[in-house]
């Protein structure tokens, strides 16, 4: 299916954002800050392809570690997928192998994570080198399931091209080979990765099937799932880079049939997030003032069925 709406929004996104938007996404967040390890980022390249290679040499995706890399993840290391800050990730990376981050680790000595880890580390490196960058939650159609799978990527400002580009730092040679990826991972086409807002609007106005969006392995799919992704993408655009399974506030419960009021609420939210630069102030204002949107001090980790404390300033 061709998502004409996303093509229009991508064209709009090519306009240079206001200076304050670029400055906002150049600064580190509580989650992306490298903290005590800031000096380790100094020698790293900010070229997107090099950023991807650096991150790929530091982290391994938990769900494909064995089939793609021949690494069996011990149960006591699976908690690494729930690390919330780049500083905590770097703590583990250095504990496993204290060499410079320019040196790729053996797969068994890499940080265990998921797509958010690759995104957040890429964002941290780019911001450290004054490149505007932000995480984006949405759905990729390149995972071999024939559907759009829940995924997180890094969106960075390419000054030479004058537009935001999508960097999928997770996709190293093993991923590319196993899934037959042919697109540029440093400039993922906007019709291959749909942001949560683009996915919502595709379903609401462009005739896409909601059941095509979600997680194939768990069967969690539908408008309720996309609505939750909208809330998480909103938080991440506000530089609160949550985990993909964090739940709070306005996010619908699984398999909820959304009411007309809920549909109108998420329609409005998707309209804002479809062009976050144009609506930057409103996105920040609503996130700061609406309790159902603001990330609270603790969130529900739906994967581990527990409440987790969010990182705080200081």
Class of secondary structure makeup: alpha+beta
Biggest β-sheet description: 6 strands, mixed
In angstroms, what is the radius of gyration?
A: 18 Å
The 3D shape can be described as globular
The succession of helices and strands, N to C, reads HHHEHHEHEEEHEHEEHEHHEE
Uncertain runs with pLDDT below 50, 5 residues or more?
A: 1-13
Strand segment count: 11
- Distance between the first and last residues' Cα: 47 Å
- Percent helix among the residues? 25-40%
Strand content: 15-25%
What is the typical, i.e. mean, pLDDT?
A: 94
Number of helices: 11
Itemize the secondary structure elements and their pairings.
Blueprint: H1 4-13, H2 19-24, H3 48-56, E1 59-61, H4 65-69, H5 86-96, E2 111-113, H6 115-128, E3 133-140, E4 148-158, E5 163-167, H7 173-179, E6 193-195, H8 196-205, E7 213-215, E8 220-221, H9 223-237, E9 246-247, H10 260-273, H11 280-289, E10 298-301, E11 306-309
Parallel strand pairs: 1-2, 4-7
Antiparallel strand pairs: 3-4, 3-6, 4-5, 7-8, 9-10, 10-11
Helix pairs in contact: 3-6, 8-9, 8-10, 9-10
């Amino acid at each position: 299916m061709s998502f004409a709406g996303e093509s229009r929004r991508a064209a709009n996104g090519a306009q240079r954002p206001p200076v304050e938007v670029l400055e906002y996404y150049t600064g580190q967040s509580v989650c992306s800050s490298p903290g005590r390890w800031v000096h380790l980022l100094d020698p790293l390249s900010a070229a997107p392809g090099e950023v991807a290679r650096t991150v790929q040499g530091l982290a391994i995706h938990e769900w494909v570690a064995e089939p793609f890399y021949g690494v069996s993840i011990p149960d006591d290391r699976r908690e690494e997928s729930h690390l919330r800050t780049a500083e905590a990730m770097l703590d583990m990376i250095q504990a496993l192998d204290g060499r410079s981050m320019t040196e790729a680790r053996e797969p068994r000595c890499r940080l265990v994570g998921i797509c958010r880890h690759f995104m957040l580390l890429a964002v941290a490196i780019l911001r450290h080198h004054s490149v505007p960058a932000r995480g984006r939650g949405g759905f990729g159609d390149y995972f071999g399931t024939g559907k759009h799978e829940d995924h997180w990527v890094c969106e960075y400002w390419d000054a030479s091209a004058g537009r935001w580009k999508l960097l999928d730092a997770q996709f190293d040679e093993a991923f590319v080979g196993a899934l037959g990826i042919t697109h540029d991972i440093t400039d993922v086409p906007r019709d291959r990765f749909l942001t949560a807002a683009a996915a919502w609007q595709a379903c609401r106005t462009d005739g896409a099937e909601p059941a095509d969006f979600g997680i194939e392995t768990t069967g969690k799919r539908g408008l309720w799932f996309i609505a939750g992704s909208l809330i998480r993408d909103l938080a991440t655009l506000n530089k609160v880079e949550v985990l993909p399974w964090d739940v709070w506030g306005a996010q619908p419960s699984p398999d909820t049939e959304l009411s007309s009021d809920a549909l109108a609420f998420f329609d409005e939210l998707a309209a804002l997030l479809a062009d976050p630069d144009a609506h930057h102030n409103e996105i920040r204002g609503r996130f700061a003032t609406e309790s159902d949107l603001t990330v609270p001090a603790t969130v529900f980790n739906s994967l581990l069925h527990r409440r987790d404390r969010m990182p705080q300033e200081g």
